[in-house]
Specification:
With about 140 residues, this protein is mainly alpha-helical. The chain contains 5 helices and no strands.
């Protein structure tokens, strides 16, 4: 079996499955629900959240560029994510390898963009579906 998430991912998965069995797969959903509840109840200022989301988006983008530079060194210049990207990618690649790091940073990019722009994923998907239906008619 090939482990694409590296030693840290294997250790986290092992501890979760060992402690709670198959319910370990529900842990990320529970954490997401708790975070969403805190956000919607107004415990976090939207302006502070927006600024943090844009900062995290920039850092995650730098890390993603650095990781892509590792995967495709001939396509991108040296250090495409700058020092921030290098620092972030070095920390994650050591624990999760390149594939796991790209998955983590990609998901973080999507979530930070959605939080920063306040775009509703549901309305974006529904708008795309409506546009595709109109184009098909």
């Amino acid at each position: 079996m090939l482990n694409r998430c590296g030693p840290a991912g294997a250790a986290i998965g092992f501890v979760l499955v060992l402690s709670v069995g198959l319910a370990a797969h529900a842990f990320p959903l529970i954490a997401l629900r708790g975070a969403w509840g805190s956000f919607t109840k107004g415990r976090v200022s939207r302006s502070v959240l927006g600024a943090l989301a844009w900062l995290s988006f920039a850092a995650l983008l730098a890390g993603s560029l650095d990781t892509l530079g590792r995967a495709f060194p001939e396509a991108l210049p040296a250090m495409p994510g700058g020092r921030v990207g290098l620092l972030l990618a070095n920390g994650l690649v050591g624990a999760f390898h390149v594939a796991g790091t790209q998955m983590i940073l990609g998901l973080g990019l999507i979530l930070s963009f959605l939080l920063a722009t306040r775009i509703s994923l549901r309305s974006a998907v529904m708008g795309s579906v409506r546009a595709a239906r109109r184009a098909g008619s």
